[in-house]
Amino acid sequence: MATNSVDTVHVNPQLTKKDFTSDQLVRWCPGCGDYAILSAMQNALPQLGLKKEDFAFISGIGCAARFPYYMSTYGFHTIHGRAPAIASGVKLSNPDLSVWQITGDGDSLAIGGNHFIHALRRNIDINILLFNNEIYGLTKGQLSPTSKLGLVTKSTPLGGIDRPFSAGELALGARGTFFARTIDTNPKLMTQIFVESSRHKGTSLIEILQNCVIFNDKTHGAVTAKENKDDFQLHLQHGERMLFGKEKNKGIRLNGFKLEVVTIGENGITEDDILIHDAHDEDTTKHMMLIRMQPPEFPMALGIIRAVKAPTYDDLTKQQYELSKENAKFSNVEELLQSGNTWEVK
Amino acid sequence: MATNSVDTVHVNPQLTKKDFTSDQLVRWCPGCGDYAILSAMQNALPQLGLKKEDFAFISGIGCAARFPYYMSTYGFHTIHGRAPAIASGVKLSNPDLSVWQITGDGDSLAIGGNHFIHALRRNIDINILLFNNEIYGLTKGQLSPTSKLGLVTKSTPLGGIDRPFSAGELALGARGTFFARTIDTNPKLMTQIFVESSRHKGTSLIEILQNCVIFNDKTHGAVTAKENKDDFQLHLQHGERMLFGKEKNKGIRLNGFKLEVVTIGENGITEDDILIHDAHDEDTTKHMMLIRMQPPEFPMALGIIRAVKAPTYDDLTKQQYELSKENAKFSNVEELLQSGNTWEVK
Amino acid sequence: MSGKQQTEELEKVVIRFAGDSGDGMQLTGSQFTLTSALLGNDLATFPDFPAEIRAPQGTVEGVSGFQVQIGKIDIFTPGDEADVLVAMNPAALKSNLQWVRKGGNVIIDSDSFEERTFKRAGYEGNPLENGSLQDYNLIEAPITSLTKTSLQGIALDNKSVVRCKNMFALGVAYWLFDRSMDQTLDFLKAKFKKAPLLVEANSKALQAGYYYAETVEALPSNYKVPAAKIEPGKYRHISGNQAAAWGIIAAAEKMGKKLFFGSYPITPASDILHELSKYKNLGVTTFQAEDEIAAVCSAIGASYAGELGVTASAGPGIALKGEAIGLAAMVELPLVIIDVQRGGPSTGLPTKTEQADFNLAMFGRNSDCPIIVVASSTPSNCFSFAYQAAKLTVEHMTPVMFLSDGYLANGSEPWKIPSVKDLPEIVIPHARLNGQEFHPYVRDETKLSRFWAIPGTEGMEHRIGGLEKENITGNVSYDPANHELMVKVRQEKVSKVAGFIPDQEVIGTGSGEVLVVGWGSTYGSLLTAVKQLQGAGKKVDLAHFNYLSPLPKNTEAIFKQYKKVLVCELNMGQFAAYLRSIYPEVKIEQFNKIQGLPFTVMELKEKIIELL
Amino acid sequence: MSGKQQTEELEKVVIRFAGDSGDGMQLTGSQFTLTSALLGNDLATFPDFPAEIRAPQGTVEGVSGFQVQIGKIDIFTPGDEADVLVAMNPAALKSNLQWVRKGGNVIIDSDSFEERTFKRAGYEGNPLENGSLQDYNLIEAPITSLTKTSLQGIALDNKSVVRCKNMFALGVAYWLFDRSMDQTLDFLKAKFKKAPLLVEANSKALQAGYYYAETVEALPSNYKVPAAKIEPGKYRHISGNQAAAWGIIAAAEKMGKKLFFGSYPITPASDILHELSKYKNLGVTTFQAEDEIAAVCSAIGASYAGELGVTASAGPGIALKGEAIGLAAMVELPLVIIDVQRGGPSTGLPTKTEQADFNLAMFGRNSDCPIIVVASSTPSNCFSFAYQAAKLTVEHMTPVMFLSDGYLANGSEPWKIPSVKDLPEIVIPHARLNGQEFHPYVRDETKLSRFWAIPGTEGMEHRIGGLEKENITGNVSYDPANHELMVKVRQEKVSKVAGFIPDQEVIGTGSGEVLVVGWGSTYGSLLTAVKQLQGAGKKVDLAHFNYLSPLPKNTEAIFKQYKKVLVCELNMGQFAAYLRSIYPEVKIEQFNKIQGLPFTVMELKEKIIELL
Ligand SMILES: Cc1ncc(C[n+]2csc(CCOP(=O)(O)OP(=O)(O)O)c2C)c(N)n1
Ligand SMILES: Cc1ncc(C[n+]2csc(CCOP(=O)(O)OP(=O)(O)O)c2C)c(N)n1
Ligand code: SF4
Ligand code: SF4
Ligand SMILES: [Mg+2]
Ligand SMILES: [Mg+2]
């Protein structure tokens, strides 16, 4: 298996970014956050120890959804909102594939909302990359279900009046087992999270705060702008304290039923007061609180917020095959056809 | 207005249950929980001080969804899963109507899941009655998104492998402002909750644990059975302590980040230790915990679990009409047609 | 009505059982059917379900019926009119008398006729007393009380005892048609394995009915319907939905693929899901999706991943799948869509039958988006056409819509069990690497279909999608000429299927006065009507279609052999309009019925005779 | 090319602006258009957007074009071929040269032609040097550098300066066609009210272009296109989507209803949502739903509640709405569905035009479910047909599908502003109480439509739904005969609309050799082709349809006056098939184009001549 002839591609531990780059011209707007996400993904995949043909990227419709064209893996650019259902079919049929669903905030949370929550509930082992630019990019700038209340867009000249979804809250409300958040301005964090979430067995939801330079520029500025980076980003690591700030001297503490930001050294606060992140906690309570943190009161929580074990739909499906085989009355169609009440006509 | 001639129906404070009963034969199975819900509703409406013609009942498809035929109000039996969208259109167009959406667990959480979460997010002032029998009744017994894991049904002979939704958790994850839970075996509680939820401005979600005698009998038995009533039902009242049990001597206490059941008088527990229910708390944390309580560890929380104020989509729409009028460049279509760049051809 | 009964020999007879939905009429009917099948009769059945789960007892809405025609001659329909009606209560009588031929036998449970019950059924007065039954031979049997009496001493509650009355009625029917009780006695033993008391009670009730009928002399005569001349072989009973499910599994096995069935329940298609979900060990994955869109999309995902992706629904659900079917057609992946049609539009008449989704199947997608459409025409050939649908979708790499309907789905008939090895071979167009760069839209020259490249295969990584793509390479292309080419290729690909399906058959001489044309579930009635007319010397032939898009190559040639072409459909004339649009030179007449019911042979004959 | 320029007078001329999507070509084109309109030319425009938001600069995919034809004669299309192309970079030249007539003028920004840029455009070598332009009159103008030079001294960054080059190009075009700059100068003042520097820069660039063209003598001559003979009145420019939006608002106002517009964005329909969302003060509610199904359902809810419910989408979204449209048809409520068609199937060619959703509009619902279908044929008559759609839907209480397409939606033309008071009256069939029990399905005798009973009205409480219902009472009914009656009533109701729409018009003598038949957006090209042939003495007439279901009463009578009927469509022949199915006796030929582009007059004329 280790020969390197022209006709056989072997398991290549040295796959590189280039191996995952397709020959298609990338057509996002100059400056779009999607470029960085693409690059982070192309950096992540070689780290997974899989072969190139083991990846399938399934997308809906939107700027984000053009992603599969730029990956030289298997890819399927489907229809608006339906990628979770298609990806589910792919994974259940071909469980050895590493399945990545690429979606925008409109694709996943507007038209695709139902498939989104059901994928999470079933815990099918796929990875959902949600490019959240809080706008419809491809259709040129309408309100999205994540747009901030009051946002003036082409479809809401007087400002949006829909209260936005929080992808994380919705996902946990739908019983999601894995939720991570990252930003397009931090390639290292993205790559790391892509690698880790691919290892989670079950539906991994990764929300990427992505900038649409054209229709919603700087919507994540409060988090991503250089001057806000230290004070408004909290990089969570399971088992570590929730520290942030330039000097890593700020932290999150529990005060009764609420979280609060404290500074070590002030008011007698010591590192011991700072919460330790437990991504594996079954209970969603603290994860929900972390997801809800928003500047300017809080830093935005980044990293893997929740990662709990639960049986996956695909594994349970396999188990039912086995169960069914054990109790089977017939082992092929011929036997099935002949089973039960039959009679001979002579 | 107070004459009682044959041709005019006046605002009648003495409307009774009978006024809300249509002439159609009720066609649910004998013993179905839906009868009690219908009756509770017919008892609730006269208490709302509205006229008969001010009510519109909008349903999807399912056994539950036959409900409007039996109410002598305005009613619309629509298509499967889409009632929230239709009800939204009704309410936005005719905001003086009291709009009730009637739905089953399949109708609302399977095919209608997307409209369900979006209605809650927008907080349109409609009341959603979710008849949760954890099964598809009308289509004769398939797995529903609320069916317990492992349930054997026509479509899952080896048991369901989908992790069920919790209607309340999903609703709060979707930013719902009102959530109540009640049971078909308690007519008084139902009537009371219907009355109260109709007063909430915004989307009121009322989950009714309903029994389907034919396809999922006693699925709520752990809560509703006579012998379990006292120990496994917690009737919440805003501002009151969370007490239950035959002697009202059991209660819910907070232990760190978790809830626990305690008995007053045991281990030094006094009434003061018992949590006071705050349905108006903006923060969903405690509401989520209450929603998640399940027998046998906990009693099931009934009553109004969450009721918080937030602007409704319909009110904001009205405000935008006003705003738009203030800044309007033209006040009718004639002026619109004539506006902007025009030229005369002679 | 006295004297010892006679035994009359009949060529065919129609019996109808009707009662409350709780009365077990479907079971009674199917037991009668099975026993008759074992006796060698040819037969066809028609269950007539109520729309409600359990409508209030004793109401017309709650009546459940089951009709079966048995014969020593070939039987193609459950019969227009019943020779014998067994009505378990006034509501059953009220709603079913219309299906009984004048002079037929009506057996009622006289215990159930009281003021309260016939009021509930919507009768003004007692129907037994007002002369409304004078055209029928009425047999009043106190079925309930006789059942109770015969079960005295068995330690069962009253409710369980009364439940056995359907077996009493079945016993009467067995005597009436000279059938043995053995099969049902065996069945009862197996069914109630765990409840010996129930075996005993039901068996006793059955026998009590039989001996009652033999004894009371209330019945004019009993009948013998001798065995039919049926092709030798091993037979079983099968309903349309079961046959469709099995056809698909058989095709998957034959092509060496696993079957992925993504579906959302809906009447009358749900039973396909129920049936398939039993066969996980045969490599069947059933995925009950959150809605119809997810259902079809999951099936498309499965096809993309290399399994056989199938979905099923009825009209309202099929309407929702249009966009996704368009995607499958655009990316050229296999996909079988089963539409078990029901009365419409909208929610319509969910439990009734209709053939009105033909247009939806043909045109229910945005833009020019042809797919293959086939229809089954009997309960048992749902097997063959489900199989064909699966074969065509993989061999031609384009979606296939398979049209069944409520009548076929729930109807059942004896079926000669085929041997899997005799089923047509299915050749999968798997893509192959040839040392050159891999392109996803390289095409088979004769079929114009592309090849199936399965994710996970090394060296075939490629991207597909719903945007227009360049032929061969599959790269997204907005080029005008390429678009025209691709639209035409997709059309041609479907048209070329005509070269891979059998020629249309004609039942008759091949030319004459009137060609009756039908498709789908009307086959039995059309065939019976045409055969009867042919028997009477009329120049009438039948061309019944199973392949609707594309049509068989010889269609136009056939049409041209007749003075008149009469298209009979259970809709407003959709197939007729389609034929006119394709063969404008053929003069097409139409006959339509839109009542949620099959054609009767009688009304068909009348209409055809009009044209002669 | 020397000597003082001449002024040539022309009957009509076509000019095309092309550049990167960031280059402001749509603005340039629309300014040129407006100025020409003010001068009294008749005209028609065609914007040609790239598929991407901002495809990479300098690539063919990123080119945005705008074509306008102006004339002193009636202009019905933007023209087959451009007389003048302004190309701002090599990619624009590459992708647009195909639309320029041999011998036409090609003005390029010579600053943009460098090794790097023409490589990026996909040229092998420098197109200016390899003779590929020898059939054209090439004018190389250093537009970028001249813009920069002329703006020296204005305190703007380089990027903003370079952005003004579209105004320079517009200046050149103004000189070339002898147009005044005043309108654009005013426009710039208004547009950049808050940025005086930009007003100055853009104005200067415009003037610099104008004077450059006048001075350099690179241009052979300039042209005069005198004012057309246009009906006197007040005019404005309007695009199809804007006109559709306004037509709907006007209808709502006329009928005294508020307008509820439920929609989900999709190209090329989104602009209707954008436009309507500006007019809340006129009683317009726009509801951006979570998907197309919710969009149409919210509109149905609005209609149920008594407002005018409207939804809009393009093919993929319309495919999703089928089930809900069926509900509206079944419960007989008003509903306008606007389908702005685009290239398909599936996602297809989102920014290109096509007429291929005719079948979907007619048949995209389960079961027999007829609705009214109308189509607009020019950008401005989108106003009238949107208005008609709203009128018909309330007056006949059944859904109306209004078909527009990408070409009409984005195209624009001068429009004589109607007066609201002259628009046809709309009479709403409000239900009335007459002292008797209220029944929701009592019908108007001439139209068969039911009456609109609005929730909140006392005494009219009633229930409706998607199950089949009894006529008059609306009670759920499974009665076979009632079902047949209702299916026929729903069909009849639509058929009867033929009595309320105008007779089909014919352009020509009313009989002859060939009748050209079209529908929708092909009107301009068909009319031009037919008129030109008529001018040349050919016996060709045109019948262009706006009412598609039902067809005008006199349709068959018209068809019978011609030896040949040629149906021209931008699809595979859907309307042709429909006509054949209705008028099998008429021999129908067809001409189709499926390239995402309108017909050219040339290709139409060729095809028609073939038939003569
Ligand atoms: C059925 C259907 N409806 C609508 C559209 C139009 N559409 C394409 S992408 C899109 C939304 C894009 O927003 P998002 O998902 O946030 O992706 P982004 O472009 O911002 O990356 C819409 C409405 C479509 N293609 N198909
Ligand atoms: C589009 C569509 N899909 C499927 C159905 C079939 N169907 C009708 S009701 C129902 C589910 C009923 O379950 P639920 O909503 O829980 O209501 P219940 O009958 O239990 O009250 C289904 C699948 C339908 N009518 N329409
Ligand atoms: S529109 Fe926005 S999201 Fe789309 S490619 Fe451009 S910048 Fe990116
Ligand atoms: S099937 Fe179940 S939910 Fe439906 S009416 Fe019967 S008991 Fe009630
Ligand atoms: Mg987005
Ligand atoms: Mg249910």
UniProtKB/TrEMBL annotation, chains A, B:
<dbReference type="InterPro" id="IPR029061">
    <property type="entry name" value="THDP-binding"/>
</dbReference>
<protein>
    <submittedName>
        <fullName>2-oxoacid:ferredoxin oxidoreductase subunit beta</fullName>
    </submittedName>
</protein>
<dbReference type="InterPro" id="IPR051457">
    <property type="entry name" value="2-oxoacid:Fd_oxidoreductase"/>
</dbReference>
<feature type="domain" description="Thiamine pyrophosphate enzyme TPP-binding">
    <location>
        <begin position="64"/>
        <end position="208"/>
    </location>
</feature>
<dbReference type="Pfam" id="PF02775">
    <property type="entry name" value="TPP_enzyme_C"/>
</dbReference>
<keyword id="KW-0560">Oxidoreductase</keyword>
<dbReference type="InterPro" id="IPR011766">
    <property type="entry name" value="TPP_enzyme_TPP-bd"/>
</dbReference>
TrEMBL record, chains C, D:
<dbReference type="Pfam" id="PF01558">
    <property type="entry name" value="POR"/>
</dbReference>
<protein>
    <submittedName>
        <fullName>2-oxoacid:acceptor oxidoreductase subunit alpha</fullName>
    </submittedName>
</protein>
<feature type="domain" description="Pyruvate flavodoxin/ferredoxin oxidoreductase pyrimidine binding">
    <location>
        <begin position="260"/>
        <end position="471"/>
    </location>
</feature>
<dbReference type="InterPro" id="IPR002869">
    <property type="entry name" value="Pyrv_flavodox_OxRed_cen"/>
</dbReference>
<dbReference type="InterPro" id="IPR050722">
    <property type="entry name" value="Pyruvate:ferred/Flavod_OxRd"/>
</dbReference>
<dbReference type="InterPro" id="IPR029061">
    <property type="entry name" value="THDP-binding"/>
</dbReference>
<dbReference type="InterPro" id="IPR022367">
    <property type="entry name" value="2-oxoacid/accept_OxRdtase_asu"/>
</dbReference>
<dbReference type="Pfam" id="PF01855">
    <property type="entry name" value="POR_N"/>
</dbReference>
<dbReference type="InterPro" id="IPR002880">
    <property type="entry name" value="Pyrv_Fd/Flavodoxin_OxRdtase_N"/>
</dbReference>
<dbReference type="InterPro" id="IPR019752">
    <property type="entry name" value="Pyrv/ketoisovalerate_OxRed_cat"/>
</dbReference>
<keyword id="KW-0560">Oxidoreductase</keyword>
<dbReference type="InterPro" id="IPR009014">
    <property type="entry name" value="Transketo_C/PFOR_II"/>
</dbReference>
<feature type="domain" description="Pyruvate/ketoisovalerate oxidoreductase catalytic">
    <location>
        <begin position="22"/>
        <end position="210"/>
    </location>
</feature>
